[in-house]
Design goal:
The complex is a heterodimer of chains A (112) and B (116). By secondary structure, chain A is mainly beta. Chain A contains no helices and 11 strands. The radius of gyration of chain A is 14 Å and the shape is globular. Chain B starts with a strand and ends with a strand. Chain B is mainly beta and 116 residues long. In chain B, strands 2, 4, 5, 6, 9, 10 and 11 form a 7-stranded mixed β-sheet that branches. In chain B, strands 1-3-8-7 form a 4-stranded antiparallel β-sheet, with no helix packed on it. Classes of the chains: A mainly beta (112), B mainly beta (116).
Chain lengths: 112, 116
């Protein structure tokens, strides 16, 4: 089975840093994705990790530890436009196709 | 412009009626997916298709049906058997069916269905 956990909601101040954790217990693993979703809109791809370590993309970084079943998304220099939900998703190599299982999402509220 | 389109953006239906949601992509992607999202929750997979004329049930397929007659199109029908159909429906596509590293899913803008 697949189980992916994320905090429901986080609040942070503009200009600060926020770390969103994701833990997963899955029957297989072939990569972890982070998506950003603004209210009422489609998710957009942020990052992908398949090997242990940190991937950095501008203000956003994502970390993976496969042995711990753990990932985090780090948002630096927060801006008001970063207020959104952040979805963690795991790909199972044993599932047909490029099938992803999503966590419940973490809603981040950035305050001035 | 390449992308995924879903129509309509908002849809209202009376209880007991079937309704079909449209999803079209011109990205030449092999795989297409339908997800349901309820308020404050993540995405749950309804159906997916790896190739034309073939599709598989996802985690919550009951009360839904799909077809894949063309590579570009993957319509979803919400039938009267779906007990709680009011939700935000998202269609996605992916360039690879084998799960090659780094292939992400690209999402359409979604259709918000309200059953009255």
């Amino acid at each position: 089975g697949q189980n992916i956990d994320q905090p429901t909601e986080m609040t942070a101040t503009e200009g600060a840093i926020v770390q969103i954790n994701c833990t997963y217990q899955t029957s297989g693993f072939n990569g972890l994705f982070w998506y950003q979703q603004h209210a009422g809109e489609a998710p957009t791809f942020l990052s992908y990790n398949v090997l242990d370590g940190l991937e950095e993309k501008g203000r956003f970084s994502s970390f993976l530890s496969r042995s711990k079943g753990y990932s985090y998304l780090l948002l630096k220099e927060l801006q008001m436009k970063d207020s959104a939900s952040y979805l963690c998703a795991v790909r199972d190599p044993r599932a047909a196709g490029n099938k992803l299982t999503f966590g419940g999402g973490t809603r981040v509220l950035v305050k001035p | 412009d390449g992308g995924i389109t879903q129509s309509p953006k908002y849809l209202f239906r009376k209880e007991g009626q079937n309704v079909t949601l449209s999803c079209e992509q011109n990205l030449n992607h092999d795989a297409m997916y339908w997800y349901r999202q309820d308020p404050g929750q993540g995405l749950r997979l309804i159906y997916y298709s790896q190739i034309v004329n073939d599709f598989q049930k996802g985690d919550i397929a009951e009360g839904y049906s799909v077809s894949r007659e063309k590579k570009e199109s993957f319509p979803l029908t919400v039938t009267s058997a779906q007990k709680n159909p009011t939700a935000f429906y998202l269609c996605a596509s992916s360039p690879q069916t084998s799960g090659r590293a780094g292939d992400t899913q690209y999402f359409g803008p979604g259709t918000r269905l309200t059953v009255l």
